[in-house]
Design a protein that fits this description.
single chain, Aspartate Aminotransferase, domain 1, Aspartate Aminotransferase, domain 2, 2 domains, 3-stranded antiparallel β-sheet, binds ligand F0G
Amino acid sequence: MSNNAYSRVRFFSGENVPLETHKVRMVQRIYLRHILDRHKVLAETGNNTFLLPNRDVFLDMLTDSGVNAMSEAQYAAMFMADDSYAGSETFYRLESATREFFGTKYFLPAHQGRACENILATAYVKPGSYVITNYHFTTTKAHITRLGGLVFETVADDAAKTKSDNPFKGNYDMGKFRAFVEKTGTDKIAFARIELGTNLIGGQPISLANIREVSQYCREKGLKLILDASLLADNLYFLKVREKALARKSLASIVRELASLVDIIYFSGRKLGCARGGGICLNDEADYRLLRDFVPLFEGFLTYGGMSVREMEAMAVGLRETLDIDVISQTPLFVEALGELLVEKGVPVVTPFGGLGLHLDASSFIPHVPQEHYPAGALGSAVYLVGGIRGMERGTLSEQRNPDGSERLSNMELLRLAVPKRVFTLSQLKFVADRVSWLYERRDLIGGLTFSDEPQTLRFFLGRLKPIGDWQEKLIAAFLKDMPSGL
Ligand code: F0G
């Protein structure tokens, strides 16, 4: 534990307030538009928060991907980048940072997380083969199914329940896992995958004890085990505060143990390391040689993999900074602060609070909107309308349709309000809580959405929708009554 564990500082007043462990030295001006302007923008952008231009967004809580605040040491390192197609010194610095961090031998660079998924799926997934995972991520699953593979999920049944007191909802249910492997046979399984900070169920962690069990079973059965470490920072913080046996262990030793339990690690450097890029880390030479050949084909030469050398330098520093509890505590503590403000007002949110962001439970928020009318997407439109706040739908809209064209209804209908690292202040989060609580009181006014333009793959990125009926006009009228300024 570092000497500066601000995460343990308590206010004498007893108030539960998270404390920033950084000071702001560069800022970006943001604008809150009038609600009527926001309504116009929403119509122009098909009620899809991915399509909103930033100039019309007040608080961008779409994602923590590539938008985390970087440290002065990261910016300083960017000046020292060695621009070169082959043999860049920057590559060797990043390679050695990954070795130091994970204890792995080889590092393959890629332009972002899904590029790693493309390489891994291309190497290992065959038509009809299975990938076992605690829970899928959108891009991961798309790469697996693109190649004719299938996904089997192993989280316990309560992981898909929004309210729970399970501190590790991302854990594998070992019973489900074993039964599936016994039934299916190992030759039909491409690999098992563990996602840290399980994204789509609300940024929920997996315990180290559980990863040990998964690893032991995979080794017994000769199954390849792949770790998605994109959300390692949040998961690491939760291991430290929720897994009692780890309280006295250093963050560095926890990461090393995690890494030693799996065969291959990949990550989105837009999340882990607070820069932009990605990479694959491993020890096995045969796997390295197999995966290596895809890097120049899909990404770029082996010493940059599609990344800018400046981002690679920032990532190397960012990895080291991930081992500071006062750096990685910031997002979980601010998510918790926002969550507590909302719970106080009775707003349904995912508990325990996870990393990444606060997740509103759209199914309970607006139970009158059926899943076929995309409640989480509709809530996303409404939150933008009343607060200029951009969230991300994580529900049926983010699923792909079944091969017969029917909807694949999601287990959960969530609206994620991401809390990128060190970006927002507490008063901004209080504004979010205020507008979302106001909306909750007027929830009966919110209606559903329907597609006006639906792309075939990853439809949530570019699809356009329209409101069913005139619920947005009614919501605006109610808002202007309570907030005559329209802001
Ligand atoms: N794995 C996880 C767990 C992720 O959260 C992401 C991205 C990826 C892989 C893909 O990485 O974006 O660099 O290609 N999550 C972002 C999000 C998009 O907003 O949660 P990428």
